[in-house]
Amino acid sequence: MPFKKLSTDELNSRLAACRADMDKLRSYGASWALDCREMRINEDNVFHINNELRRRQVEEQNSRSSAFKVGDLICFNAAGMRKKSLGLVVALKSLVSDRNAIQVQWAVIPELKPRVHNLEYAGGWSEVDHSIATWYQDDDWFEVVKQN
Fold first, then answer.
1. DSSP 8-state symbol, 132
2. pLDDT > 70: what percent of the chain?
3. Phi, psi at residue 143, to the nearest 5°?
4. pLDDT tens, residue by residue, 42-88
5. Among candidates 36, 137, 134, 141, which has minimal Cα distance to 90?
6. What is the rounded distance in angstroms from the CA atom of residue 110 to the CA atom of residue 106?
């Protein structure tokens, strides 16, 4: 069943319907209900609906809006690099399973670099080229210098 296409209200109503069917089947007797095909289908649907609702809840919690907009000038506000760095926000990416990411093109590359997003450092920290637009974790170590 394509539960991803249903709204949250529809999922909640289907979940309630499945649980009501399961209770009705259990009233016939525990041994009969556990062997019933309809019971197994309802249990499977409850499992998948709960997973989809949980996925949506996590996505909602992680989709906090970024303090930055494309075109903002930012600096790396950590390790004394505030006045020694200047970058332009090129793109924003909201991720479900991880922190949001911002892509920065540095005009003045800081000596001490910010934490690169895990999209980038799969090959190792030393291999990241900060002279091109690079993805970083969107966190409080960046500060807006001038908004777009």
1. S
2. 82
3. -135, 140
4. 999 999 998 888 888 766 665 556 778 889 999 998 888 889 999 99
5. 134
6. 8
Residues 80-112 have pLDDT tens digits of: 888 999 999 998 887 655 667 889 999 999 988
For 21, 84, 108, 117, 135, the CA distances from 131, given in Å and listed in that order, are 60, 15, 9, 15, 12
Confidence of residue 36 (pLDDT cuts 50, 70, 90): confident
User: In angstroms, rounded to a whole number, what is the distance separating the alpha carbons of residues 70 and 37?
Assistant: 53
- Beta strands of 23-72 (E only): which ranges? none
Q: Which residues contact 78 (CB under 8 A, 6 or more apart)?
A: 112, 114, 141
- Spatial separation of the C-alpha atoms in residues 117 and 120, rounded to whole Å: 6
Place of tokens 């930055």: 68
Classify 18 as helix, strand or coil. Answer: helix
User: Amino acid identity of 127?
Assistant: E
Task: For residue 113, give the amino acid letter.
Answer: K
Asked whether the beta carbons of 15 and 50 are under 8 A apart, the reply is yes
Torsion over CA: 87, 93, 96, 97 (sign): negative
